[in-house]
Design brief:
mainly alpha, elongated
Length: about 120
């Protein structure tokens, strides 16, 4: 019986270690997604600035870009603050930032479509 008890104790410790590794892996994956999202935002923001500075700007698209950029900044700032503070990230926090980024990217796609069709 002592061998079984020892074996059970080892199995329990290994199970806890595996659970800890899974939680750690989840945080690593969320951090990677957060960094990817923030990087994509910087690329999109650069495109937005270039479009807005171009001179031939559709006022409707300009308003959409500005609104989308402002909407994206709030969840991305929250995400950046959490990473800087070393806080755990949640799937909700990351996906909210990704959705806000998608809104900005959509507004930029509208700008590109408007520019290429000549509807400025």
């Amino acid at each position: 019986m002592p061998k079984r008890t020892h074996l059970a104790a080892c199995a329990a410790i290994l199970s806890l270690a595996a659970l800890g590794a899974c939680a750690s892996d989840k945080q690593v994956n969320l951090q990677k997604a957060a960094y990817d999202t923030m990087s994509a935002y910087h690329v999109a923001a650069t495109g937005a600035e270039a479009y807005l500075a171009s001179g031939n700007v559709n006022t409707t698209v300009k308003a959409e870009i500005k609104a989308a950029a402002a909407a994206a900044l709030t969840p991305l700032t929250t995400l950046d603050n959490a990473i800087t503070a070393g806080d755990s990230l949640t799937t909700t926090t990351v996906s909210t930032a990704e959705s806000a980024l998608a809104g900005l990217q959509s507004a930029l796609a509208d700008a590109q479509a408007t520019t290429t069709t000549g509807s400025n």
